[in-house]
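Customer escalation, tier 2.

The customer says the design service returned an amino acid string that "doesn't look like it belongs to this structure." They asked us to rerun it and document both sides in this ticket. The original structure tokens are below, unchanged.
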């Protein structure tokens, strides 16, 4: 198969620049597949070279077409990444990448060898141009990923978590709950440790940054608890694995809760190193911990039940619509609550929450304090009316309670912290 003059001209112009503006939008997963296919084609040819010019010409023609499409999509991908829209791990890196794996190095050596073989052929300059552009765009994507908004790592993780949802795991969990009836808080903590131990022993975090000896020793008290399974053996290897785990999970009370930005970034950076079983376990651990945590928060005096109530309130559509700045999103609120409940003001709030008749007033005063701190902006009457529409359990005096925010000692902390 011969390359036409039109194809040569298109390649010399650069496929990414001449892409049809009306074409269907690319998808980052499709781009990842395109790059994988390029790698496979080059590796297969290198392992099974041919001296037949016609066969090699067909392969080079296919490679140029694949590179043209990948370069076009890489351009779109970089634009999206700069706008914090997406992220996707690739099977290849640029020549500039400082990668401890050899896959990309082999690929580029294969490419150099192929170009050397066709140096005297018509397609040589076209292929060299597409390869140079491919390498340049991969390098730009790598650099953009390093400096992108970290939220894209969380969003990547959530997309993959949805894809990896395991219904059998949910069924097994509820069967276990039934067998363990009546469920106690002690038993739930035991189940949490069992899930963590099993997953870490699968090596899912073995590629994470090595912790210092001090950090490893600091986790020892956390791992010598009565909630551990009776057959648990605290080895040095497990202490190191758990120290890595704490880079990605925070301990909130009795719960081990993932930091999805860090967890997502770890997966993106190491996707090529996981086998499929490990990859599934990464998401299964999160799903199982989430199921356990739902059982933990059922007690209405529980600290995490309070967090859930306030989070559900803050995520109401009527609250989202009146936030004064995009920075006051769900991640901001989660971090804000962590600081709040670590403070004396937050501990006072928890003590007051024990009185059931005060809870509606406390929630209203909390929202009223956020309004006073200019996190949200709307009239008390309108806010109260819309919150009541969203949740029929809302007290009819919610608007009045919001306006009384200054009567509560925790309101000063909220205003000072936001301001």
């Amino acid at each position: 198969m011969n390359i036409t003059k039109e194809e040569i001209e298109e390649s010399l112009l650069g496929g990414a620049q001449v892409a049809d503006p009306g074409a269907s939008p690319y998808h980052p997963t499709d781009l990842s597949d395109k790059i994988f296919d390029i790698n496979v084609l080059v590796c297969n040819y290198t392992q099974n070279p041919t001296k037949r010019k016609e066969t090699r010409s067909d392969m080079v023609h296919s490679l140029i077409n694949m590179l043209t499409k990948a370069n076009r999509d890489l351009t779109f991908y970089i634009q999206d990444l700069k706008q914090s829209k997406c992220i996707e791990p690739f099977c290849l890196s640029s020549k500039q990448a400082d990668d401890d794996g050899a896959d990309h190095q082999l690929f580029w050596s294969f490419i150099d060898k192929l170009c050397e073989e066709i140096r005297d052929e018509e397609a040589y300059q076209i292929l060299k141009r597409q390869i140079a552009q491919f390498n340049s765009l991969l390098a730009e994507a790598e650099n953009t990923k390093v400096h992108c908004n970290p939220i894209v790592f969380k969003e990547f993780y959530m997309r993959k978590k949805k894809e990896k949802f395991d219904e059998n795991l949910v069924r097994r969990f509820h069967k276990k709950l039934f067998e363990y009836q009546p469920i106690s808080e002690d038993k739930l903590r035991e189940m949490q440790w069992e899930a963590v131990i099993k997953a870490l022993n699968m090596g899912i975090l073995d590629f994470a940054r090595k912790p210092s000896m001090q950090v490893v020793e600091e986790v020892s008290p956390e791992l010598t608890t009565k909630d551990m399974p009776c057959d648990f053996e605290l080895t040095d290897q497990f202490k190191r694995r758990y120290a890595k785990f704490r880079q990605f999970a925070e301990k909130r009370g009795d719960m081990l809760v993932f930091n999805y930005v860090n967890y997502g970034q770890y997966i993106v950076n190491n996707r090529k190193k996981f086998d499929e079983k490990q990859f599934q376990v990464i998401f299964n651990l999160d799903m199982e911990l989430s199921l356990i945590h739902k059982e933990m928060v059922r007690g209405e005096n529980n600290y995490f039940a309070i967090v859930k109530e306030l989070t559900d309130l803050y995520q109401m559509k009527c609250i989202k619509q009146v936030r004064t700045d995009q920075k006051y999103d769900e991640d901001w609120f989660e971090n804000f609550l962590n600081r709040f409940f670590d403070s004396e003001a937050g501990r006072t709030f928890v003590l007051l929450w024990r009185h059931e008749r005060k809870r509606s007033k406390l929630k209203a005063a909390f929202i009223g304090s956020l309004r006073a701190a200019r996190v949200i902006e709307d009239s008390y009457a309108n806010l109260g009316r819309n919150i009541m529409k969203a949740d029929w359990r809302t007290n009819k005096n919610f608007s009045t309670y919001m306006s009384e925010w200054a009567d509560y000692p925790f309101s000063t902390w909220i205003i000072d912290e936001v301001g």
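Tier 2 assessment: The sequence is consistent with the input. Residues 1-23 have pLDDT under 50 and may be disordered. Residues 3 and 61 are 7 Å apart (CA to CA). Sent an explanation to the customer and offered a walkthrough call.
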